[in-house]
Amino acid sequence: TSTQKMPATTARKTGKRSVGKAKKVVRKVLVRTKIGKKAPHNESATVGRSASYKRSGKWAVKAKNKGKFPVIKAAAKKPEAKTKAPRFYASEDTPKPFARRDVKKPCKLRASITPGTVVILLAGRFRGKRCVFLKQLSSGLLMVTGPYKVNGIPIRRVNQAFVIATSTKVDITGVDTAKFDDAYFAKKVVKKTKNADDFFAADSKKEELSPARKADQKTVDAKILAAVKKQEMLKAYLNSRFSLSKGQNPHAMVF
Length: 255
Prior knowledge:
By secondary structure, the chain is an alpha+beta fold. It is 28% helix and 10% strand. Strands 4-3-2-1-5 form a five-stranded antiparallel beta sheet. β1 (117-121) and β2 form a beta hairpin. The longest helix has 20 residues, at 211-230.
């Protein structure tokens, strides 16, 4: 009949929940997640302010800085340099060179070039002449001398790329070259002013060598000249010029 009660099984089938099961669902929602464990998606909204504060890790930052949050001060801005606008602009874009980061290292000295080796100069003012190699400088350039009394070549720097090493050698034991470096050969840079008077002025006289430079030339050449005199025909060999005639290939020759 209609007055009879429905059994519990039929009540569950129709979608109704029992009171005990409804309480369990409410308890599960109200349970707060423990710190250190990731909260499930359905429980993240139930975390309180204190739990979220602990979870964020701000308390550790505060404890590390004596109970206060660290204040990061903004760096003071440098005043921008005032750039003056140019009076004229280039009609085309001027290429800007890239900044090079490579470290310059002195080139390795060739095995055929040793102190006392007679070398042939292939470029420069004294091209075709023979001179004596003394040492390699820190820049990688070679320090050579004529001697000056023999062929007129003073103490100077030469790039080994423009040199032919010969098998002839001169004994240079006792020659002191400790004081000679790249700074010794550096020339003084004089700034020139551009005006009408300088344009029509006569060419300035060439600077003469200092007495100290002449004295250094004599002291270095003194012992080399003594060694040159001991070897027969060596003085004439240093004074002669190097030249090639038709049919002679320098790469196939032994010097």
